[in-house]
Every structure is written in structure tokens, then in C-alpha cells.
From TrEMBL:
Residues 10-63 form the HTH cro/C1-type domain. It comes from Solibacillus merdavium. This is HTH cro/C1-type domain-containing protein. Pfam families: Rgg_C (PF21259). It comes from the Bacteria. The lineage of its organism: Bacteria, Bacillati, Bacillota, Bacilli, Bacillales.
Length: 303
């Protein structure tokens, strides 16, 4: 990204939105400074840049896409990671690890090294292997980082299986207030919700139900901000039902069967498979049925 070309993008946005130069720059830049800035001959301060975005009604993420004419590398990277992981594509994960290694060698940017470790451990989870030899470096980074953002939440969430519960509790408690500040932003909110779901999932698999229920209450606190997100609302019902059935607070699996069926209707096939796999690990028998109208439903029973 050419820093001095930012003014040219600001000018184009201003013209597209029919905003006068006076209205946009008043109190920020003089007439000559405005001209130099929009020609790309000068820069402006960070604080003034954010005021300009606010007056243009443009978010920083939107500006990045408009200015670079592309979405972030991370967006495509995380899409690729999620796709191959949920498909249990071993070869695909190995290719990503090699790609991230080369990117780190080329740029010397530590984030690509962290991503590589994260993907290595996702691969090891699928293969039921112990953490990679570099995992300790990722762990130390997260434990020593006092200010968490989306990056740290994402790394922690996708490496959760290799952290002890005591360590998860410590890190989560220390970081909660910082993480909560970002919940107004959708991608932070979603990653925070995913972190909680991963912690809940981990504790259910380890039959640590009191801890799973504790973190589920944390997830319930997000119900209002997630109310318009179908995926996270569906997962809320799913884990509530799993906890109630596995702890014998509820005998009927009818609502659980509905959730599994609905995931198929919502074109969430990979998530449906994950949810069924968890139930089978918990000694439930999940049977897929098709009625005479070719409608698919599921029947769940305890083994």
C-alpha cells in the first residue's frame, strides 16, 4: 500500500459521496494542504485520517478493501484454513504449512510463523498427535501478551486443544475485559464466540461438565449481540441440548435432532458432521432417516 496515495482514495470517496472539500476537511486541513493530500503529494496524521473516515461514513476495513482493491491476505488465508480443516484434508493442510513457511522466510513477519504453528497443530489434532515442537513458542507469545486483539483470540481459539484447562482459565480471565471491548466489531465478536464454543467443546469431550457449563454461561451472555447470527444461535441451542442430555438434566433428544437436521437445511454440512462426530464420541447413536417425501431427519439415542 502506497501511503501517499491514500489521499487520492479519500478524494475519490469524497466525490463519489458528493461531499464537498470544505465539509470533509474543515478544522483538519487548510485549502493548500487539502490539495496536496488529495494529489498524493503529502500525508496526514493518524488521528485526522480516522476523522476523515468517520465523516465519509467508511470503516477502516472498508477503506482497506477500496484502497487496495482486494480483501486482506488474512481473509483468504483463514477461509482456506477453515475449508481444508473441516474437510479433514490432510494434504491441504500440509500445503498450507509449506505456503506459510515460505511466506515467513520471504517477509520475516512473525505472524506467518504463528499461523504455521497454528496450522501444524490443527493437522496434529486431526492425526491425534501431540503438539508440534514449535508450539511452546506460540504458547509463550500468547501468555506474555498483555493486550489481546483479533489476532491473539484467533491463535488461542484454534490451538485450544493443547492448553490445559487451568491455563485456559488463567488466560481467559486475564484477557476477558480486553476481548469484551472488541465485541462491538463483528469479526471480533464472532471469533470471541468461537473461542467460547471451542472451550465448551473441549470440556464436554473431557467430561468436565461443570467447566463446560461455566463457559456456556459466558456464551449465553452474548445472546443479545449474536441474536441476528443464525450460525451462533444454532450452536447455542446445540451445546445447551448436549449439556442437558449428557448431564441427565433432560432425557429427550428431540431438540438435538432438530438442530442436526436444520444444519443440513442451512447448508452447513461440515458443521453438521462435526456436531454428529461429537455426539458419537459421547456414546450417542445418530441415525439418518429419509421419509417417503425424501425429507431427511435424524434420530439420536444413547448407546
Amino acid at each position: 500500500m502506497e501511503i501517499n496515495s491514500i489521499g487520492k482514495t479519500i478524494k475519490q470517496l469524497r466525490l463519489d459521496k458528493k461531499i464537498s472539500s470544505q465539509s470533509l476537511y474543515t478544522g483538519l486541513l487548510s485549502r493548500q494542504a487539502r490539495s496536496n493530500f488529495e494529489k498524493g503529494d503529502s500525508d496526514t496524521t493518524v488521528s485526522k485520517f480516522f476523522i476523515l473516515l468517520d465523516r465519509l461514513n467508511i470503516s477502516l476495513d472498508e477503506f482497506y478493501v477500496i484502497h487496495t482493491q482486494k480483501e486482506s491476505v488474512e481473509f483468504h488465508l483463514f477461509t482456506d484454513i477453515a475449508s481444508v480443516y473441516y474437510k479433514k484434508d490432510i494434504e491441504g493442510l500440509i500445503l498450507l504449512i509449506n505456503k506459510l513457511s515460505k511466506e515467513y522466510e520471504k517477509t520475516n513477519n512473525i505472524k506467518y510463523y504463528h499461523y504455521k504453528i497454528m496450522v501444524e497443530n490443527m493437522l496434529r489434532i486431526l492425526k491425534n498427535e501431540s503438539p508440534s515442537k514449535d508450539f511452546e513458542q506460540l504458547s509463550n507469545y500468547l501468555l506474555n501478551c498483555d493486550s489481546w486483539g483479533y489476532y491473539e483470540i484467533m491463535l488461542f481459539s484454534n490451538s485450544i486443544n493443547y492448553f490445559s484447562q487451568d491455563l485456559i482459565d488463567i488466560v481467559f480471565k486475564r484477557s476477558k475485559s480486553i476481548i469484551t471491548n472488541f465485541r462491538i466489531l463483528r469479526r471480533y465478536r464472532n471469533e470471541y464466540a468461537m473461542l467460547l464454543l471451542n472451550i465448551i467443546n473441549k470440556n464436554i469431550l473431557e467430561s468436565n461438565f461443570p467447566v463446560a457449563e461455566k463457559y456456556f454461561l459466558e456464551y449465553e451472555d452474548m445472546a443479545e449481540v449474536l441474536q441476528n447470527d443464525m450460525y451462533y444461535q444454532t450452536m447455542r441451542i446445540y451445546f445447551r441440548e448436549v449439556l442437558e442430555v449428557t448431564t441427565n438434566k433432560k432425557q429427550s433428544t428431540e431438540d438435538l435432532e432438530k438442530v442436526i437436521t436444520y444444519l443440513g437445511y442451512f447448508n452447513m454440512g461440515n458443521k453438521q458432521k462435526q456436531c454428529i462426530a461429537l455426539l458419537e464420541q459421547l456414546n450417542f447413536h445418530v441415525e439418518k432417516k429419509t421419509d417417503r417425501n425424501l425429507e431427511i431427519a435424524f434420530h439420536i439415542t444413547k448407546k
